Amino acid sequence: MYSISLGDDGAELSPLEPWQAEDFLAHMDRGREFIGQHNGLPDIVTDLASSRAFLQAYAERAAADTGRIYGIRTDGTLVGAVIFRRMDVGQGTAEAGCWLEPAAAGKGLVTRAVRTIIDWAVEERGIHRVEWWVSAENGPSIAVARRLGMTRDGVLKESYLYRGKRHDQEIWSVLAPVWRAARQGAQATSGR
Protein backbone atom coordinates (compact mmCIF):
# COMPACT_ATOMS: atom_id res chain seq x y z
CA MET A 1 0.00 0.00 0.00
CA TYR A 2 1.19 3.53 -0.62
CA SER A 3 0.75 6.70 1.37
CA ILE A 4 1.40 10.37 0.73
CA SER A 5 2.83 12.59 3.45
CA LEU A 6 0.60 15.50 4.42
CA GLY A 7 3.41 17.37 6.18
CA ASP A 8 5.98 17.22 8.94
CA ASP A 9 3.48 16.16 11.63
CA GLY A 10 3.36 12.49 10.61
CA ALA A 11 -0.02 12.77 8.86
CA GLU A 12 -0.48 10.62 5.77
CA LEU A 13 -3.09 10.04 3.10
CA SER A 14 -3.71 6.58 1.65
CA PRO A 15 -6.52 4.66 -0.06
CA LEU A 16 -9.13 2.97 2.10
CA GLU A 17 -10.11 -0.52 0.97
CA PRO A 18 -12.64 -3.15 2.09
CA TRP A 19 -10.00 -5.20 3.96
CA GLN A 20 -9.62 -2.20 6.32
CA ALA A 21 -13.25 -2.41 7.48
CA GLU A 22 -12.36 -3.07 11.14
CA ASP A 23 -10.06 -0.06 11.27
CA PHE A 24 -12.70 2.07 9.54
CA LEU A 25 -15.41 0.97 11.98
CA ALA A 26 -13.15 1.74 14.97
CA HIS A 27 -12.53 5.21 13.53
CA MET A 28 -16.25 5.73 13.02
CA ASP A 29 -16.99 4.60 16.58
CA ARG A 30 -14.45 7.10 17.97
CA GLY A 31 -15.99 9.96 16.01
CA ARG A 32 -19.60 8.88 15.61
CA GLU A 33 -21.28 11.78 17.44
CA PHE A 34 -18.90 14.45 16.12
CA ILE A 35 -18.98 13.24 12.51
CA GLY A 36 -22.76 12.79 12.68
CA GLN A 37 -23.41 16.46 13.34
CA HIS A 38 -23.52 17.14 9.60
CA ASN A 39 -22.73 13.81 7.93
CA GLY A 40 -25.03 10.80 7.67
CA LEU A 41 -22.17 8.30 7.49
CA PRO A 42 -22.36 7.28 11.18
CA ASP A 43 -25.96 6.22 10.57
CA ILE A 44 -24.80 3.97 7.70
CA VAL A 45 -21.58 2.48 9.12
CA THR A 46 -22.82 0.83 12.30
CA ASP A 47 -21.14 -2.59 12.35
CA LEU A 48 -18.43 -4.56 10.56
CA ALA A 49 -20.70 -5.66 7.70
CA SER A 50 -21.87 -2.11 6.94
CA SER A 51 -18.29 -0.82 7.25
CA ARG A 52 -17.10 -3.39 4.73
CA ALA A 53 -20.06 -2.66 2.42
CA PHE A 54 -19.34 1.08 2.48
CA LEU A 55 -15.67 0.55 1.62
CA GLN A 56 -16.62 -2.02 -1.03
CA ALA A 57 -18.94 0.50 -2.66
CA TYR A 58 -16.02 2.92 -2.92
CA ALA A 59 -13.74 0.17 -4.25
CA GLU A 60 -16.31 -0.37 -6.99
CA ARG A 61 -16.47 3.39 -7.67
CA ALA A 62 -12.68 3.49 -7.91
CA ALA A 63 -12.73 0.56 -10.35
CA ALA A 64 -15.37 2.36 -12.43
CA ASP A 65 -13.49 5.69 -12.12
CA THR A 66 -16.56 7.34 -10.56
CA GLY A 67 -15.35 7.98 -6.99
CA ARG A 68 -12.53 7.50 -4.48
CA ILE A 69 -11.95 7.32 -0.72
CA TYR A 70 -8.69 8.05 1.09
CA GLY A 71 -7.93 7.73 4.78
CA ILE A 72 -6.14 10.37 6.80
CA ARG A 73 -3.81 8.80 9.35
CA THR A 74 -1.74 10.33 12.10
CA ASP A 75 0.95 8.11 13.58
CA GLY A 76 -0.69 5.15 11.84
CA THR A 77 -4.17 5.73 13.31
CA LEU A 78 -7.08 6.39 10.96
CA VAL A 79 -8.55 9.75 12.06
CA GLY A 80 -10.54 10.87 9.03
CA ALA A 81 -11.12 10.59 5.32
CA VAL A 82 -11.52 12.56 2.14
CA ILE A 83 -13.58 11.37 -0.78
CA PHE A 84 -14.69 12.04 -4.26
CA ARG A 85 -18.37 11.21 -3.78
CA ARG A 86 -18.88 11.58 -7.48
CA MET A 87 -16.48 11.77 -10.41
CA ASP A 88 -17.47 12.13 -14.02
CA VAL A 89 -14.23 12.19 -15.96
CA GLY A 90 -16.06 12.58 -19.28
CA GLN A 91 -17.77 15.74 -18.04
CA GLY A 92 -14.71 16.82 -16.07
CA THR A 93 -16.56 17.19 -12.76
CA ALA A 94 -16.11 15.81 -9.26
CA GLU A 95 -17.55 16.37 -5.80
CA ALA A 96 -15.14 16.23 -2.87
CA GLY A 97 -16.06 15.63 0.77
CA CYS A 98 -14.50 14.88 4.13
CA TRP A 99 -14.85 14.04 7.80
CA LEU A 100 -12.63 13.78 10.87
CA GLU A 101 -12.93 12.40 14.34
CA PRO A 102 -12.77 15.12 17.03
CA ALA A 103 -9.16 14.51 18.14
CA ALA A 104 -7.95 15.36 14.62
CA ALA A 105 -10.00 18.54 14.09
CA GLY A 106 -8.36 21.94 13.88
CA LYS A 107 -4.97 20.76 12.61
CA GLY A 108 -5.38 21.51 8.91
CA LEU A 109 -5.52 17.83 7.98
CA VAL A 110 -8.61 18.08 5.79
CA THR A 111 -7.34 21.13 3.93
CA ARG A 112 -4.02 19.42 3.18
CA ALA A 113 -5.69 16.14 2.22
CA VAL A 114 -8.29 17.72 -0.05
CA ARG A 115 -5.60 19.88 -1.67
CA THR A 116 -3.75 16.65 -2.48
CA ILE A 117 -6.74 14.92 -4.06
CA ILE A 118 -7.78 18.02 -6.02
CA ASP A 119 -4.23 18.28 -7.40
CA TRP A 120 -4.52 14.65 -8.52
CA ALA A 121 -8.00 15.10 -10.00
CA VAL A 122 -7.05 18.22 -11.95
CA GLU A 123 -3.58 17.21 -13.10
CA GLU A 124 -3.92 13.43 -13.52
CA ARG A 125 -7.60 12.89 -14.33
CA GLY A 126 -8.36 16.11 -16.19
CA ILE A 127 -11.15 17.23 -13.87
CA HIS A 128 -12.21 20.77 -14.73
CA ARG A 129 -14.63 21.54 -11.85
CA VAL A 130 -14.43 20.29 -8.27
CA GLU A 131 -17.49 20.89 -6.10
CA TRP A 132 -17.90 20.96 -2.32
CA TRP A 133 -21.47 20.46 -1.04
CA VAL A 134 -21.89 21.42 2.60
CA SER A 135 -24.59 22.09 5.16
CA ALA A 136 -24.93 25.84 5.64
CA GLU A 137 -24.58 25.13 9.37
CA ASN A 138 -21.19 23.42 9.01
CA GLY A 139 -18.81 26.33 9.60
CA PRO A 140 -15.59 24.27 9.71
CA SER A 141 -16.32 22.65 6.34
CA ILE A 142 -17.19 26.02 4.79
CA ALA A 143 -13.86 27.33 6.14
CA VAL A 144 -12.09 24.47 4.32
CA ALA A 145 -13.78 25.47 1.05
CA ARG A 146 -12.57 29.05 1.56
CA ARG A 147 -9.00 27.94 2.39
CA LEU A 148 -8.99 25.87 -0.79
CA GLY A 149 -9.87 28.97 -2.81
CA MET A 150 -13.34 27.77 -3.73
CA THR A 151 -16.17 30.12 -4.60
CA ARG A 152 -19.67 29.77 -3.22
CA ASP A 153 -21.91 29.14 -6.21
CA GLY A 154 -25.19 29.19 -4.35
CA VAL A 155 -27.47 27.85 -1.64
CA LEU A 156 -30.06 25.12 -2.09
CA LYS A 157 -32.70 26.11 0.45
CA GLU A 158 -33.96 23.27 2.66
CA SER A 159 -32.76 20.74 0.10
CA TYR A 160 -31.31 18.16 2.47
CA LEU A 161 -33.46 16.23 4.94
CA TYR A 162 -31.21 15.02 7.74
CA ARG A 163 -32.41 13.43 10.96
CA GLY A 164 -35.88 14.88 10.55
CA LYS A 165 -34.83 18.46 9.79
CA ARG A 166 -34.47 20.25 6.46
CA HIS A 167 -31.08 21.88 5.94
CA ASP A 168 -29.80 24.42 3.45
CA GLN A 169 -26.84 23.20 1.39
CA GLU A 170 -24.16 25.46 0.04
CA ILE A 171 -22.37 24.53 -3.16
CA TRP A 172 -18.78 25.70 -3.48
CA SER A 173 -16.48 25.00 -6.41
CA VAL A 174 -13.12 25.62 -7.98
CA LEU A 175 -12.28 25.41 -11.67
CA ALA A 176 -9.04 23.88 -12.91
CA PRO A 177 -7.58 27.13 -14.34
CA VAL A 178 -8.25 28.94 -11.04
CA TRP A 179 -6.80 26.00 -9.08
CA ARG A 180 -3.64 25.93 -11.17
CA ALA A 181 -3.16 29.70 -10.96
CA ALA A 182 -3.53 29.65 -7.17
CA ARG A 183 -1.07 26.73 -6.85
CA GLN A 184 1.46 28.50 -9.10
CA GLY A 185 1.05 31.69 -7.06
CA ALA A 186 1.60 29.79 -3.81
CA GLN A 187 4.73 28.12 -5.21
CA ALA A 188 6.11 31.46 -6.44
CA THR A 189 5.47 33.05 -3.04
CA SER A 190 7.17 30.19 -1.18
CA GLY A 191 10.21 30.48 -3.45
CA ARG A 192 9.95 27.06 -5.06
TrEMBL record:
GO terms for molecular function: protein N-terminal-serine acetyltransferase activity; protein-N-terminal-alanine acetyltransferase activity. InterPro entries: Acyl_CoA_acyltransferase, GNAT_dom, Ribosomal_N-acetyltransferase. Residues 11-168 form the N-acetyltransferase domain. It holds the Pfam family Acetyltransf_3. GO terms for cellular component: cytoplasm. This is N-acetyltransferase.
